[in-house]
Amino acid sequence: MSSMNLVLFGLAVMGGLGLLFGAVLAFAARVFAVEVDPREEAIVGCLPGANCGGCGFPGCAGYAAAVVKGEAPVNRCAAGGAAVAAQIAEIMGVTADATVRNVAVVHCTGCGANIKKYEYIGVDDCVAAARLPGGGPLGCDYGCLGMGSCEKVCPFDAIHVIDGVAKVDEDKCKACNQCVDICPRHIIALEPYKTKKHVSIPCSSKDKGPAVTKVCTNGCIGCSLCAKSCPKEAITMVDNLAHIDYDKCIGCGICAQKCPRKLITVDGKVPVVKPAAPKAAPAAAAKPAAPAAEPAKTETEDK
After folding, report:
1. Chain-centroid distance, C-alpha 182
2. Is-contact 75 85, C-beta < 8 A?
3. With contact defined as beta carbons under 8 Å apart, do 110 and 165 qualify?
4. Of 7, 24, 148, 175, whose CB neighbour count within 10 A is largest?
């Protein structure tokens, strides 16, 4: 057999095997096919496709499957928000309940970023630094390490390290939980924005006041003034640190005005306490009325 014939024979054999295997795979695909509920595809189509995992399921497809099975609510997509929830509810034939917007908050102001235990030379990553003795080089054992592990995992570009501390862009944040999960110091949390003005306590230190003041210029010292001043008893002290119960908080901001460390924020800012108006001077004592003048005598009386 000539070399040309061998080549043609080999091609024919390979082609035949390809057709055979293709037919087998097609048959197997038809026999073992898993029927997919068309609603899953419809839900995936209206999801933003971020695959951020904020819903608690493996990607958008996993969430869509869970919704169809009744294992997840229609409003769980953090990236899509209310608009996507309404679309999914329409597909499922249900009503989308109103959801409270959550935003990631970094419970550290970074006011102790310059106070170090030692000089760190290594991978610029919080998770790596936290494995070192003392949990990293920062003087405060509860502060932001500032190496951007949270920034690297955020799929929405909503968190960045600025001046040694992570800060969240609330307009971009979708509450996907990625930064919360990656932070080795567990100082990032999702807070519900339930009031017109959102109050937050950006500190995580559980140390007592004297220890806090050595490593941070405005960390919580556990003085309890905020808790005592709250009209709704929404603030409690736990391990020397103030905590807000957002089911009770009305966003009045009184706690922020009373905080001696200027730590508590209202809508991300420390409110400026206006000086009290000066008291009015006491009114001068009323002078006694002058005695009434005697009536003039008439000529008849003189006679």
Report:
1. 14
2. yes
3. yes
4. 175
pLDDT digits 0-9 by tens, 103-114: 999 999 999 999
Residue 100 to residues 97, 134, 299, Cα–Cα distance (Å): 10, 38, 95
Nearest to 227 by CA among 276, 270, 186, 264: 264
* pLDDT of res. 145: 97
d(CA 109, CA 245): 20
Domains and CATH numbers, the chain: 38-92 (1.10.15.40), 100-193 (3.30.70.20), 196-274 (3.30.70.20)
Give the DSSP letter string of 45-97. HHS------TTSSSHHHHHHHHHHTTSS-TT--TTTHHHHHHHHHHHHTSPPP
- For range 70-99, the mean pLDDT: 88
- C-beta separation of 108 from 204 below 8 A: yes
Pair of tokens at residue 185: 């110091």
Query: What one-letter code names the amino acid at 67?
Result: V
Taking the C-alpha atoms of residue 283 and residue 268, their distance in angstroms, rounded to an integer, is: 44
Biggest CA pair distance of the chain: 176
**Residue 235 in tokens:** 């603030």
